[in-house]
Amino acid sequence: MQSFVKIQWQSLALPQSQLCLAAVLKCGQSFRWMSFGSAPTEEYHLCLADRVVCLKQDPTTLFYRTLLSRPQPSALPQQLADAETLVWLKDYFQLDVDLQKLYAEWAIRDKVFSSIETRFAGIRMLRQDPFENLISFICSSNNNIGRITKMVHALCKHYSPLLLSMPNPSDPLVEVPYHPFPSPTVLAAPDVEATLRDLGFGYRAKFIQKTAQMLVETHGSGEQAERFLAGLRTASTGDAREELLKLMGVGRKVADCVLLMSLDKHEVVPVDTHVHQIAIKHYGLKGSLNSKTAMTPKLYEEINTKLVNVWGDYAGWAHSVLFTSDLKAFSTHGVEPAAAENALPTPPPTPSPRKRKSNAPDASKTSSQDDALPSSSLLAPRLKRRRTTDTTIASS
């Protein structure tokens, strides 16, 4: 095991109103961040291609440090690595965007937003690696955050070599391995589908392998496929969406998540059943909260247009705040401990053994609402033998 105890934390003045790690890294945007400990000293780690980035924060400061795969012979290479990490952090969290200014604008435009802006401060969009973002959201079809996280980590562990391992910050006797995200070339191999099925990916295994294969065959192996996806950042929203929809298992919802979360299309609002319910509940869209309405392309576009009209050019960012605030997993987020007890929903009476047996949900077919996310955790996609055209916006 390597020794990293001498790697110092670096600091960046950044209030939690601009970035709240506990919300941004746990609300279903990215699935590879590992968390250790608990607030207010919780740490977050992410393995990149050549390093592990570690983060923590207090109310006024973001702390970061860079762990490289090999101990550095002098302080200079470590200083250079920390400087590179700072550049990456500013890009990944899009810190050039003044989030407090956006919150103020949304609060003026939207009374619903104004009622939650203080409690759910600091929720911003990540600017992720497009290929990782794409594959992660293909995994999200009819799934929940916990299971997606396990799948994505299994993908990395199986298809990427170990970069480094180090002690768990919460339990130094436990060693934690770190694997980067695999490349399109690796996931395009013909035997990937069968292996992923063995790992529990189900029908998503075929989508992942075929999408990687299509990217490599069309745009080249090595880093060429990844450069193609990153290049969509400069394309129009319509053109970039059209390219994504060509890929296996990518429907309008997955495409819109990738557009928003890695391709700089800030105005895009990904729509699923959960977002549909928010639009009905708060924004005057016609419909019933108790009925299951098929998510047609027409309805999807209607919801998207309505919410963009409410929130403006950064509508996708505002959507993420509203979405997070509506999740049961965040029911006590930003609530003082004394008030948190009252914020929790009252549990239903324990059913009798007979009722428990007859009414128990099938865990393999349902997702926890606590783990709802903006991909399709409440949806049941209709699988077809041919390439699905919209696997992530089918009604639940």
UniProtKB/TrEMBL annotation:
What are this entry's molecular-function GO terms? 8-oxo-7,8-dihydroguanine DNA N-glycosylase activity; class I DNA-(apurinic or apyrimidinic site) endonuclease activity; damaged DNA binding
Domain of life assignment: Eukaryota
Transmembrane portions of the chain: none
Major subcellular location class: nucleus
Start and end of every HhH-GPD domain?
A: 139-327
Looking at the UniProt record for this protein, which Gene Ontology cellular component terms does it annotate, in alphabetical order? nucleus
Recite the UniProt keywords alphabetically. DNA damage, DNA repair, Glycosidase, Hydrolase, Lyase, Multifunctional enzyme, Nucleus
**SUPFAM superfamilies registered for this protein in UniProt:** DNA-glycosylase (SSF48150), TATA-box binding protein-like (SSF55945)
UniProt-annotated location(s)? Nucleus
- Provide a GO biological process annotation: base-excision repair, AP site formation
Q: Where is the composition biased (Low complexity)?
A: 367-381
| EC assignment | 4.2.99.18
Region entry Disordered, spans: 338-396
Q: Which reaction(s) does its UniProt entry say it catalyses? A: 2'-deoxyribonucleotide-(2'-deoxyribose 5'-phosphate)-2'-deoxyribonucleotide-DNA = a 3'-end 2'-deoxyribonucleotide-(2,3-dehydro-2,3-deoxyribose 5'-phosphate)-DNA + a 5'-end 5'-phospho-2'-deoxyribonucleoside-DNA + H(+)
Similarity-based family: Belongs to the type-1 OGG1 family.
What is the name of the protein in this document? DNA-(apurinic or apyrimidinic site) lyase
The record lists the lineage as: Eukaryota, Fungi, Dikarya, Basidiomycota, Agaricomycotina
